[in-house]
Amino acid sequence: QVQLVESGGGLVQAGGSLRLSCAASGLTFSTYSMAWFRQAPGKEREFVVSFPWRDAGPDYADSVKGRFMISRDNPQSMVYLEMNVLKFEDTAVYYCAASNRFLHQSLRLRTSYNYWGQGTQVTVSS
Length: 126
Prior knowledge:
Helix content: under 10%
Shape: globular
């Protein structure tokens, strides 16, 4: 049974930083692309960043480029999201997701993902 478990969310002031973690189990982690999506109240779930399992490095949404950084630890089956210079508009539930696809274009689509975590709340106070 595949599980993705996020942690590290919380309340932070604007301009601050948070680090999210996602622990994966039940899958061959090194052959899955990993990503973070987020969903704010009343809005659709949106792509934040992906890290393909092959052929390319991370792909960031324009809204977080230069502020967020994704990393993955294949032996530990972990993926991380370092979030800096947080803004009020970054407030959302953040979801970890896994996909057996690897092209950047595909990984921007929610429908490309095989597995999802339950999410972790990030609240940025202005």
